[in-house]
Amino acid sequence: MPLRTWARVAGRSLIGELGGKLVKDIEIAHRRRWPERPMSLISCSWLLAISPCLRLMLTHRIAHWLHLKHEERGWRAWQWYLMVIPLKLLRLAVEINTKSDIASGCEIEGGVCFSDQGHIIFGAGKTGAGTVIGARVTVGMSYANSGSPEIGRNVWIGSDCVVHGAIKIGDGATLLPGTVLTKSIPAGVVMQGNLARLVLRNFDNSELRKRSDPEAIAYAKTKWGD
Amino acid sequence: MFKNIRADTQRALHRSKAFHSIDVLRLLWAHHGLQALVIYRFGRWLSSLHKRRYGGAIAISLYPAYRILSVCVRKAYGIDLDQSADIAPGFYINHFGGIEVRNCRIGPRCTIYQQVKLGAADTNDSGPIIGEGVYIGAHAQIRADVSVGDGATIGAGAVVTQDIPKHCLVLGNPGRIAKQDYDNSAIL
């Protein structure tokens, strides 16, 4: 087989498809963890080794890729089982490590950051780039109404949030910690409270997304009280 | 013990819409909630053994195994089903992580989700009493000594601080009754 065909196959395959997305994930996690340190190969690989959220992301990307392959039905059954059993074991290890579960059908764009503290149950239909998701967050709960939430770009979801139902979260929205959201919200709003209430419109949450989790929560507290 | 476990497994099979016999093995291998529940039932069975002949000796010899398994489940999955809780058969735990069930009584055919906290750790009271067929959504908390009626639905993130009558929908913090006569058979 000529080299160009090989390159095309590799480009379409696992590494080519996932590499680009994962690099974006690492970039965002790196910026959040060490804001002033320049990115290098050593620091990136160190981050991949120590950060549970990146491990979760990597596993999810592989699982999602395999999920799409399975839906195409171009694959023979034995190929599928060959890959699914090691993947199950990998997912089990990551699940136990981070206590989080991402449904393999979720479409997550490159550059999404999950909290390192874990306890995330995630079943959103689509998630935009630049979204930051805190610890102990539940997104989904679609057993009865068979619809899952869609999250836009640059959304900041604080810890202990619950987002459920077939709803849409606009680009750049902010959910303060402890919010329970069941209705669609437009872009750029800030929501708070159990049964979410609107706090603010047209808020720029780039400051929140840049900081690491505890700092961002402290920042939100100084801005909105408790 | 085996009767209860069978009821739990049937419930989990029904929830995952799988009815083949191979799916029982798959569930026991992959369903974290069911594994935690099996170990909890095992512990309850051990503590009821002393009524039988040689029961005490069997219980003492098997007790370390139970302790090790329960610690493993608690650390690995974050599902803490304490022996002080009294759980009726047909219990279903969806997902895992941050679940605490202690010091409470739960009726048959209940469903709980991740991050649910039932019962307080440091009281001598009886704790919450939960009826039959109650749905408790993710992140809900029932810490106080309240009774929840049959067929009630506790919404996601609700914090229950008062008695809930039958077939009610509770939402919010503090939990308020949002709807009477709410039918939860579709989501249970």
Please tell me about this protein's structure.
The complex is a heterodimer of chains A (226) and B (188). In chain A, 44% of the residues lie in helices and 15% in strands. Chain A has 226 residues and is α/β, with parallel strands linked by helices. Chain A has a single domain (3-224), classed as UDP N-Acetylglucosamine Acyltransferase, domain 1, CATH 2.160.10.10. In chain A, a hairpin with a 4-residue loop joins strand 14 and strand 15 (197-200). Chain A is globular. Chain A starts with a helix and ends with a helix. At the A-B interface, helix 5 of A face loops of B.
What are the main properties of this structure?
heterodimer, A: 226 residues, alpha/beta, UDP N-Acetylglucosamine Acyltransferase, domain 1, six-stranded mixed beta sheet, five-stranded parallel beta sheet, 15 strands, 15% strand, globular, B: 188 residues
